[in-house]
Amino acid sequence: MAEPYLRVENLQKQFGPFIALGGVDLEIYPGEVHALLGDNGAGKSTLIKTLAGVHQPSGGQIYVEGKPVNFRSPRDASSAGIGTVYQDLALNQLMSITRNFFMGREIKGPLGTLKMDEMNKIAHDEMLKIGIDFSDPTQAVGTMSGGQRQTLAIARAIYFGARVLILDEPTSALGQKQQMEVLKTIKRVRARGDIGIIFITHNEIHSKLVADRFTFLALGKVIGSGTLQELADEDIRKLMAGGAEMADLEQELAAI
Amino acid sequence: MADRSESDRLQQETWLQRTIRRPEIGSFTVMIVIIIALSMASNGKAFNALGLKNNIAIIAQYGIIATGAAMLMIAGEFDLSIGSMIGFAGMSMAMMLKWGLPFGLGEATPFLAFFITLAMTLSIGWVIGTVVVRSGLSSFIVTLAFLFFMRGVTEVSFRLINQSTQISGLPDYKETSWFADLLGGEVFGWFYDLWFALGGNLNRRGEQWVDGFDARFLWWLIIAGGAYFILSRTQIGNWIYATGDNKESARANGVPVNRVKVGLFMFTAFCATMFAACQVFDTNTSDAAKGNLQELFAIAIAVVGGTLMTGGFGSIIGVVFGAITVGLVANAVFFIPTIDGAWFRVFLGGILLAAVFANERIRKRITGGI
Ligand SMILES: Nc1ncnc2c1ncn2[C@@H]1O[C@H](COP(=O)(O)OP(=O)(O)O)[C@@H](O)[C@H]1O
Ligand SMILES: [Mg+2]
């Protein structure tokens, strides 16, 4: 097997006395989708925020291409190739697609002028590569659908050098059709072969549709992991429920 | 079906459809109506040689500060200290011209008086901006504090140093200083010369009547032109929009949100200083009440011009239309003596309210609400 682009060893994160992450291991390979699953409060967002440089880990080590790294800011993480697409997407609704695409990283000509034509073309082409053909990149983001906005945020992260793309519940706030759009986008990014994707979701079906590898978190710890081949459907369902047996849950519910 | 793509869904709009969807269309329409109404009601006097000059003078005054207010509003903040800043800057310049440089450093030239004042107002703008971004308090309340503070400082300084809250009878520096002439003199003389050559612009004795516009016309064009260029064509413009739209996402993408805001508070201070400088060198006077309420006109004009109160969106061209509209109506009483001047405020209140509703509609349309 190829070397993982990103490796996490025994990662810990405490908020005061509260142990949000109690020693997590994770490996992200290029060209693979790694589904990160777990109940609300399991620590998924804390894990990716630590990978994205938002939180400093309390213990453990992150390696990028085998070398230990310390991210002191989101900027450190993104220059190391970790591109994060948060749930709120960090998009500005009133601004155009192009202006959002290059927000904070504009292409400048003389006197700080924007190379608008070049930027329009890049924004259009990059989004086309992963699936949407917008003829008018001057359109405001506010008029785009949720799925299209995801695509924009993903295309932006890739264009600016993401080698690991972190998607925090990209499908959770969307309707059926748009969820499929996002899954297609994920597949297209995967097909490039050079980018590893961390896909956080609640949805077992979605994860099985696109993921190559799974990690299940519960109460800040990894309770199971493996490739799609290694894990049986039954395991996945059980691990999704935080390790509980379906039958137990049924009994608990019946007792109320 | 399967080969349809996203780009096919965008309806091709005609030039006319695009035009009427522009955010400036409302202020443009109101402006045209006002120009026509005023021409008719004043029998053309509002736009004869002198009428045009006087109208442009007040339009340019409004335009200068409304540009600053609009830029800041697009970045999501307000500045209520503009009017007091005008009073302070005017006081500072006039006082230096009359009483010499501070600390007994000798006579002040117009050049020195202006730049020392500008250094002070920009510093105050920096302080206001820094307080706002550091404290996270609403700029409304912080700048309201500076509204009182600066007006008070202006009055107290006048009384302490000058024993009176006004200065008049300064020498006409325009005669001796090119710099004073640049701020308080006349510009675009060729326009009136041409008008005269074509047989108009005549006074009762048949001589050339008006020689040029007030210099503030040129300054307004420079400030509005610069603001337009920055907003639409530069990286800083993109940062201003991003900051006002959603500052968290701007920050997450590396936009220096705080620096943008502080810079724009300094820009409104600059606009207020230009307003004051043009006034001081034009009239050779100053008093403690100068600029009173101007911050509210500036904000009203920015809103009439299509700037969103919530930030992230606005148009300098719309603000130009807004300044023309409000300036013309403010001056209308001079050309139509039969009307009561207070109608101006009735009108302003009315279009302000209409503009707020129109802007809200535009915001909803862009964000997909309608
Ligand atoms: N900044 C914080 N300070 C204190 N506790 C936090 C903080 N962020 C997250 N937590 C806690 O850590 C736990 C894990 O949260 P999170 O990572 O958001 O879970 P998930 O994304 O899996 O739903 C939760 O119990 C949450 O309350
Ligand atoms: Mg979460």
Structure report:
The complex is a heterodimer of chains A (256) and B (370). Chain A has helices at 44-51, 74-79, 97-101, 116-129, 146-159, 176-192, 204-210, 233-240, 246-255, and strands spanning 6-15, 18-28, 33-38, 59-64, 67-69, 82-85, 164-168, 196-201, 213-218, 221-227. Chain A is α/β, with parallel strands linked by helices. Chain A has a domain at 6-89 and 162-254: Rossmann fold (3-Layer(aba) Sandwich), CATH 3.40.50.300. Chain A has a six-stranded mixed sheet with strand order 6-7-8-3-9-10, with helices on both faces. Chain A has a four-stranded antiparallel sheet with strand order 2-1-4-5, covered by helices on one side. In chain A, a hairpin with a 2-residue loop joins strand 1 (6-15) and strand 2. The longest helix of chain A has 17 residues, at 176-192. Chain B is built from 15 helices and four strands. In chain B, helix 4 (82-99) runs parallel beside helix 6 (139-162) and helix 4 (82-99) packs across helix 12. The two termini of chain B are 27 Å apart. The A-B interface holds A 74-75, 86, 88-95, 99, 102-106, 108, 111-114, 116, 132-136, 139-140, 142-144, 148 and B 5-7, 10, 233-239, 241-242, 245-246, 248-250, 252-255, 308, 312-313, 363, 366-368. Adenosine-5'-diphosphate binds next to strand 2 and helix 1 of chain A.
